Amino acid sequence: MSEKNKGNKTGGASKIIIILLVLLIVLLGAFGGYILFFGGAAKLHQASTSSNINNTASPVTTTSADENTYSLDEAIVNLSDTDSQRYLKVKVSFGYDENNSKLKAELESEDVNKKPILSDAVNSVLRSKKASDFTGNEKSINDMKQQILDAVNPVLKKGKISHIYFDELVVQ
């Protein structure tokens, strides 16, 4: 009888080990799925690199405290890389003089929604870029901000945007 009890104890222990291994495989698969489908790898890569891609410096001058901002919605844009499909997840904000109440009214007007027009102007500039343009090269980022300013300002009638800020910038 004691031989039967020993066999049951080792069989129960091996079942527990198998269940734990299956659970570990499922958890690793779920983590891999998260990285693959939700861009977790880009976030992990961004956090582990020493260069900071979130660049909030203005293209020409430094920011003053006397500035209002207007933010666009987050956008995902295809980049123009030909060797692989690359995407850019970006949230752009515009800085302008806080004393310009006419521009503030134009941007925040419910009658004429400028957000789609401004988003299209920004997206058209960003779609022409490659992933290598976002590799922490300060000059290329500032040139890109200037191109966005040049695309956005002609759309506005009651003032000019003075600074471009990337609140979020992830290349994948």
Which helices and strands, and how do they pair?
Elements: H1 2-38, H2 40-48, E1 67-71, E2 75-78, E3 87-97, H3 101-108, H4 115-127, H5 138-152, E4 163-171
Antiparallel strand pairs: 1-3, 2-3, 3-4
Walkthrough of the structure:
The protein is of the alpha+beta class. The chain has 2 domains: 2-38; 67-171, Tetrahydropterin Synthase, Chain A. Helix content is 48%, strand content 17%. Strands 1, 2, 3 and 4 form a 4-stranded antiparallel β-sheet that branches. A hairpin with an 8-residue loop joins strand 2 and strand 3 (87-97). The chain is elongated.
Number of domains: 2
Could you tell me the mean pLDDT?
79
- By DSSP (H or I, 4+ residues per run), the number of helices equals 5
Note the overall shape: elongated
Could you list some keywords that capture this structure?
single chain, 172 residues, alpha+beta, Tetrahydropterin Synthase, Chain A, 2 domains, 4-stranded antiparallel beta sheet, 5 helices, 4 strands, 48% helix, elongated
In brief:
With 172 residues, this protein is an alpha+beta fold. Helix content is 48%, strand content 17%.
